[in-house]
Amino acid sequence: VFPSLAQAQASVANEVYRELGQPSVFLFCPTEYCSSLCSPSPSKSCYLLTLGQELLPGISIIWTGPKVVSQELSATLLEEVEGVLRRRPVIWDNLYANDYDCRRVFLGPYTGRAPGLMPRLRGLLLNPNCELQANFIPIHTLGSWFQSELRSCAHPDHAGMESATALGDRQGTQEGSYSPQEALELALLDWVAEINRQALEPGR
């Protein structure tokens, strides 16, 4: 019936979206959801080009970055993805996901995300560790990153300093920008306080 997988998926997604009354949040996860799955690249993928053309504009498209688990996210990549999808992507961030290897638990700060990314995103979802308690630092430091991004949006002169500010632990070199190390220290202080509070609860 359909000449391509992308046209089939877009047709079904559009029909469901309309049937549900075009809700404000409607997420579509493409078969090619990161750069490493695209052939030959995101901007030249016939599959993504078709989705960008065929999917109704109110439908959000999920993207994980360069890889399924992306160590870094850059404004340049998001700009390329936005161009081909004709909309800003929703990042499904697998930085902390450990469902593929439950012997590992990720407790470091939210890092590797360039400053000034928020204007290039339609949203951001964090795929956490499978162990509930292990997500205090990931979620806490994500909150610190988000607050820093909000400040950048409020003061656009300080946004998009990716060229001046390297990814990773050096993100805190610009005044007011997100520092993974500072965010980690704040998260640890709050986590210890939370652990102590729980320890005092009856029955603990």
UniProtKB/TrEMBL annotation:
Sequence ranges assigned to domain GH84 in this UniProt record: 1-150
InterPro entries: GH, Glycosyl_Hydrolase_84, O-GlcNAcase_cat
Alphabetized SUPFAM superfamilies for the sequence: (Trans)glycosidases
Chain ranges passing through the membrane: none
GO MF annotation: an example: beta-N-acetylglucosaminidase activity
The organism's place on the tree of life at top rank: Eukaryota
GO biological process, one term: glycoprotein metabolic process
Name used for this protein in its record: OGA GlcNAcase
Species of origin: Uria aalge
Name of the gene encoding the protein in the UniProt record: Mgea5_2
